[in-house]
Amino acid sequence: METKENKMLTGTIWKQILVFFFPILIGTFFQQLYNTIDALIVGRFCGKIALSAVGGSSAQIISFVVGFFTGLTGGASVLISQFYGGKDTRRLRDALHTAYGFATLGGIVLSILCFFLTPGILSLMNTPEDLMSSSVLYMRVYFVGLIFVFIYNMGSSVLRAIGDSKRPLYFLIVCSLVNIVLDLFFVLVFRMGVWGVGLATLVAQGVSAFLVTWWLMKKQEDVQLRISEIRIQRKVLGSILRIGIPNGIQSSMYCISNIIVQTALNLFGVDTMAAWTAYGKIDVLFWMVNASFGIAASTFVGQNYGAGLYHRMRKGARVCMFMALFSAVFFTVLMMSAGPFLLGIFVEDAQVVEIGMVMIRTIAPAYFLFVFIEIFSGVLRAQGKTVVSTTISILGICVYRIAWVNILGTKAELQKLILCYPISWLICAVAIGIYYLAEQKKLEINHIHNVHDKKAHG
């Protein structure tokens, strides 16, 4: 391994976290632009039915599929960050090529399955009949390019695991610009509607997959992708899945619960679906920041954990928590005060905007609760401890929301229905906080014992 200084292990903690955090945040913003620009353009130029088709049930299903695989990439990211921090070149190389092979195979298989299952899933979600054909078309175009999504997400997670959060940002800026230009071209010039925004997204995702693969094939710091070495090693894949599957399940639990709530919301009609879509495009600003802090915490802790720097690891987790809580309060104030203006960017219908404000007033004040879930989960994931946090998410997020929706029934008021979000966050935050504190205490005790053993045999 090269001897270049790894500042994740030696630099000022808050500075290194922010240096890593901001490219992730900006990159996440540009990645989100794929769907947001689609929604903005079809909402403005094609109407609320097209907006609901792009951002309603279809967005929830896409988020579930992509979210589950992105969770799986967390297994590769944890291993690579630990191997990189511990300077284990051979295992780092094996993890890289196995991860890339898994992303390629998974992208092909799921692309085929999702293409054919799309109509049935949309029907199960009570998607209104006037949205069905447009939603099926958009989702199928998106799923054709699923292999590109998987390859990009795996490649970018590898780069972030070794401390490079800038390169994925550069690639996303290029691809987002491609997406915006093609959106405008296909919708305004060729009048292709939902089909046009789906095609623009597919092409942009293909560009992102090519760029991240091309960069990894160049000479990197201690890691280089070679196409001839891409193969799935069972032992390495097992290690990736041991961490990644619980992480993927945890990610998908949020999506599943959102699908369940979306299914109930669909019964309220097109206005409510459009409001939920518009609210989601604003609400995502908080989630981008929060998730970026989670990735920063996981990468920082993973590298320091691999290097055995436990005191630095714990301090980094506290710094991430403080900054994430500050951002959550900021977004709560922003959403509550500027909600009508922000919703009006996506839709001009006054009734839709009013429904969106009900959603904001119910959910936004509880943003700070999810910070604890995100940061604690990221730190535990970096240490390879994912099973318990996944179980907490299954019970506190998915099972609770299913029960909530079923108890209220189909005639529930909108505000009561979406109260399941802040309440489930409270339950999970308390539970995962208790588990986190217990695990860190165990780690501290084990570390003290190991130090004593080394001195005794010194």
Order of helices and strands: HHHHHHHHHHHHHHHHH
Shape type? globular
- Would you tell me the overall average pLDDT? 84
Largest sheet: none
Instruction: Name the structural class.
Output: mainly alpha
Cα end-to-end separation: 28 Å
Task: Report the radius of gyration as a whole number of Å.
Answer: 22 Å
The count of β-strands is 0
What's the number of helices?
A: 17
Which residues form runs of ≥5 with pLDDT under 50? Answer: none
In helices, the fraction of residues equals over 70%
Could you describe the 3D structure shown?
- This protein is mainly alpha-helical and 458 residues long.
- The protein is built from 17 helices and no strands.
- The chain has helices at 7-10, 13-45, 48-55, 57-85, 89-124, 129-144, 146-161, 166-189, 193-217, 234-266, 270-306, 310-346, 350-363, 367-382, 387-408, 414-418, 420-456.
- Helix 2 (13-45) runs antiparallel to helix 11 (270-306) and helix 11 packs parallel to helix 13 (350-363).
- The longest helix has 37 residues, at 270-306.
- The radius of gyration is 22 Å and the shape is globular.
- The relative contact order is 0.12.
